[in-house]
Amino acid sequence: MTKKALICHYRVGRTDGVSLEITKRISVLEEMGWKVYLLAGSGSDGADFIIPELDFDRAEVRNIAKNSFNSLTDYKSELVLMDDIDNLAKIIATKLKTIIDKVNPDFLLIHNILSHGRHIASALAFYNVLKETAIPSLATHHDFYWEREDFKEPSCKTIDQFLQKYVPPTLHCLKHAVISTRAAESLRKRSSIDAAVIPDTLDFTMPPWEKDGFNKDFLKTFDLSGNDILVLQATRIVKRKGIELILPIIEKLNDKKFLRQLVGKQLYNGKTVTETSKFVYIIAGYAEQEAEKYLQTIISYLEERNIPYRNIQSKISAEREIDKSEKKFSIFDTYAYTDIVSYPSLFEGWGNQFIEAVFAKKPIMVYEYPVFKTDIKPWGYEVIGLGSTTLKNKQTGFLKLPDETIETVCNKVIDTLLSSETTKKLENNFKTAQKNNSKDTLKILMSESMELV
Known about the structure:
By secondary structure, the protein is of the alpha/beta class.
């Protein structure tokens, strides 16, 4: 008899890291003979079941998050806040039980719902349903609320006690997984919970992301020259992605001092640089609702300094789409035309876009965020390091790299683009990831975590 799995998250089918990891888990489970169903909040693509109240961008959810952390500003008391949390949790739990009765799943895979701070009512809902049904479950924690600036400080004692009990909880039917050794240690110290480590992975046997008939009009669509040097920002747009760190680098690379070193020469990938070539920053990831103002400050910075860029997020999706009115490229189409990838994240649970860049065999500019240092760098990847030190730009309010780091990075970018060794280094990066972050790795770790071996 075919086993059934229900995967649950705030949203699915997008280009954020959790959605991408869920897609990989679907593939693994289906190869193992499971029937997989997806449950998410509204704003998802391809979910089998929608609980609108799971969407963390709903007004009531955002208000709870706002008042549960840092300061209690919109409620008369802690008890009134808890009433709202309880009531929303009951709505979600009722709908969740209806879906469970319909699917009758053998296993639940729950992503971030039991660990994040942006929707704690959903954590209570899932806890209560799991306690009642005792369905075998695996909670994968891509992020913890205490790792994020917005969620570090509970607003009151009641919320603090709530978080300690439910985010994440302990139940006999529930196992836990994280995506880095650093997160595993943090969870163990904080909650005495032992979690499996399942890092971000990719199917290294799939065809490479190349120029083809579908994406052949990519450059024309975004008014780009085939001789421009494209710097891809594929991550979502949120402050922790550190996007402002890259902007002075793009600006400096467009100085004659650096561009003239490339003119008339071929890059590692065969592209010839001309007198009219320029470094163009490609913003492909979408902006979260709370980061729309941040995106606008990024755009303003780029325009005020005449830094070449394209904001292409409106025409990028998780998968290729085409209808009579609009064509959307896959996020992976962007890699086919990219010359170098920007990855300046200040914090990541692991690093989905990092592993994508490795698969695409592109050079990567990487800020050395904590998990990169502990779980990725030791494997020996060749990257253009941005260091791990930031300063505050008093004029713009942005974070910035030290001036000497920016100069060093620009020189490394030029050397990497021109070096005859770059292709070999990128191939070695690919082999390293193939060994440590492949689909086979995911299959083994999931089987162990779900006790399927």
